[in-house]
Design a protein that fits this description.
7-stranded mixed β-sheet; globular; alpha/beta; 335 residues; 14% strand; single chain
Length: 335
């Protein structure tokens, strides 16, 4: 089975640094897949010769390509990965967000994956309480599911009751990629357009819903939470704008009846604490820390020492990886 990693980023110092850290983590920690090819896609413009040379030399086999944005909204660009590879390049594509790092062997990441039928694997996302309204209606509207089909997908692992996935780590075979090429981008655009107000009442509703969602999370009073959730349900359908990329992908998977293989949290760990019984997660998605770190100085900032001394296992692991890379980079420059 030919495994191919892919990551999509922008030509900025911060993104380039995150991509270097991710590539280093793959080559260091990914176990039997650590030497699998990686395609790095930069959106809009190519990187400078110095960074290009470093990435090509240190992390081969790696292919760097430049692709245009997919339209005018930012929520579709990561899915350039579905169009960047030739059929002869892979059997299974592992698409990783830039703000992920591999901490443990990925030897089991494609367990249960078959090439005989389209298969999609990602971590179920659990929108909490009232930050998502009316997903069942979207399943009917965009995935063309009958009421019976919708209920057949019902599973307690999804807090929405129905399949919805975090797109930070996606494992998908070639047959599924071909189907997702047909609809994922179009559905994302339709979801985004649905958040553009068509009437005054629609405009007011779109402005009020985020405020209610924030209030829901802030309050600790159960009665108030219940009241806010009841108000939000009156909106019929609502979701945060940034959720379009994940909702659209999930709906495209369901529309084409692609076989779903839920991915363990350990392959897309977003929590600040680490699982004590399992040790390090396989892939750590450090999106919560990304805004607190100056990514332009990812390998030299004071944050490294602070995180190494932290009581947080996730901060320790991220800082140790970055520190190891920065030291290896320093040693290579000396040589």
């Amino acid at each position: 089975m030919r495994i191919h990693f892919s990551v999509v980023g922008e030509n900025t110092p911060g993104y380039i640094n995150m991509i270097k850290a991710l590539l280093f983590s793959i080559r260091t920690n990914a176990g039997k897949y650590r030497q699998c090819p990686v395609t790095v896609i930069f959106i809009g413009s190519s990187i400078d010769e110095q960074n290009l040379h470093e990435i090509m030399k240190r992390f081969k086999p790696v292919n760097i390509v430049t692709m245009p944005p997919i339209g005018s909204i930012p929520y579709t660009n990561k899915y350039n990965a579905f169009y960047a590879l030739k059929e002869s390049d892979y059997d299974v594509l592992i698409l990783l967000d830039c703000d992920t790092v591999v901490l443990n062997k990925l030897d089991g990441i494609v367990d249960g994956m078959t090439l005989d039928e389209p298969v999609f694997s990602a971590r179920p996302i659990k929108p909490i309480g009232a930050n998502f309204v009316g997903y069942k209606k979207l399943l009917h509207r965009y995935a063309n599911l009958t009421p019976h089909e919708i209920e057949s997908y019902s599973d307690p692992i999804y807090l929405t009751k129905y399949p919805l996935f975090n797109a930070g780590v996606i494992v998908v075979n070639q047959k599924a990629v071909k189907l997702l090429q047909e609809d994922a981008i179009r559905i994302i655009y339709n979801l985004y357009d649905d958040l553009m107000p068509a009437t005054l009442s629609h405009f007011i509703r779109l402005k009020v819903m985020p405020i209610l969602a924030d209030a829901y999370f802030i309050t600790g009073n159960r009665s108030i939470k219940f009241f806010i959730a009841s108000l939000m349900k009156m909106a019929n359908v609502w979701y945060p704008k940034w959720n379009c990329e994940q909702i659209g992908l999930s709906l495209a998977v369901l529309k084409h009846r692609i076989s779903i293989r839920p991915l363990s949290n350990l392959y897309n760990w977003t929590f600040q604490h680490f699982p004590e019984e399992d040790g390090l997660p396989y892939i750590y998605h450090y999106l919560r820390y990304k805004k607190r770190i100056n990514l332009d100085n990812l390998f030299t900032g004071n944050w490294i020492e602070n995180y190494l001394q932290s009581q947080s296992a996730s901060k320790n692991a991220l800082a140790e990886l970055i520190y190891t890379y920065s030291r290896s980079e320093y040693q290579s420059e000396k040589l």
